[in-house]
UniProtKB/TrEMBL annotation:
SUPFAM superfamilies: Acid proteases. It comes from Batillaria attramentaria. InterPro entries: Aspartic_peptidase_AS (IPR001969), Peptidase_aspartic_dom_sf (IPR021109). This is Uncharacterized protein.
Length: 235
């Protein structure tokens, strides 16, 4: 069983996730209600399978005091990727019908449109990842002019679920992030692993991680940029 993060409006986040459930896998999502003063009135109702991606089902949905726990199961024969606001259960005040419903769900991923070698790409900005990634299909379609280099040392890349992430090599590319993400339009040179496509990456072919964000933060720490840079939180 893998413990993940649970996002609820008005509820603390354990950590935001992009989740892939393997066939037969059970995942436990946990969270803590932070803005509810009436603990005894809080209840939870599991969503039915018609609201979930095919093959997913809610095993249980419980709220104990202000602690929330939802277990989901992938009963299909293929991996299921969750990257949107997929609702598994609804929190509610059982004694007061006019209170707004709170949703127990996987939080929205932090996505943005960026330029990779002047080619537009949808990317996931993931401060929990240590390596930036571009998919094999995007590389072959738009970056074939960039040399695919090989590492001269062994590098094992492990995903959030503990699975090993294969890669073909790495590329050195110029990446431009939009001003609404980093405060101003700026281009940095980034090393990216080229990885095979999966269900999620077919829609979001690029992952920007801390190696790129740190490089960007270092680049912006100059007298000409200091007046306009935002706070970049890199854990």
């Amino acid at each position: 069983m893998i413990e993940g993060g649970l996002h609820v409006r008005g509820v603390s986040l354990r950590r935001p996730l992009v989740i892939t459930l393997e066939p037969g896998q059970v995942m436990q999502l946990t969270g803590l209600v932070t803005d509810c003063k009436r603990k005894t009135d809080l209840g939870i109702t599991a969503r039915t399978t018609e609201h979930l991606p095919a093959g997913l089902e809610v095993v249980s949905a419980e709220v104990d005091n202000l602690n929330v726990c939802v277990k989901i199961h992938n009963s299909s024969r293929r991996p299921v990727c969750l990257s949107h606001r997929t609702v598994f259960a609804e929190l509610h005040y059982s004694g007061c019908s006019e209170e707004p419903e709170l949703e127990a769900l996987v939080g929205p991923s932090h996505e943005a449109d960026i330029l990779v070698e002047d080619k537009k790409a949808r990317c996931l900005i993931d401060s929990g990842s240590q390596v930036s990634i571009v998919t094999e299909s995007f590389y072959r379609a738009h970056l074939s002019h960039v040399c695919l280099e090989q590492l001269n040392f062994g590098l094992k890349v492990t995903g959030a679920g503990g699975q090993q992430v294969p890669y073909l090599g790495f590329v050195r590319v110029d990446v431009s992030l939009p001003s609404d993400v980093v405060g101003l339009n700026e281009s940095v040179n980034v090393l990216m692993l080229v990885c095979p496509d999966n269900e999620f990456s077919r829609r979001v072919p690029v992952i920007i991680s801390t190696n790129a964000l740190r490089h960007l933060a270092d680049t912006l720490q100059t007298p000409t940029h200091m007046h306009s840079i935002p706070n970049l939180y890199i854990h």
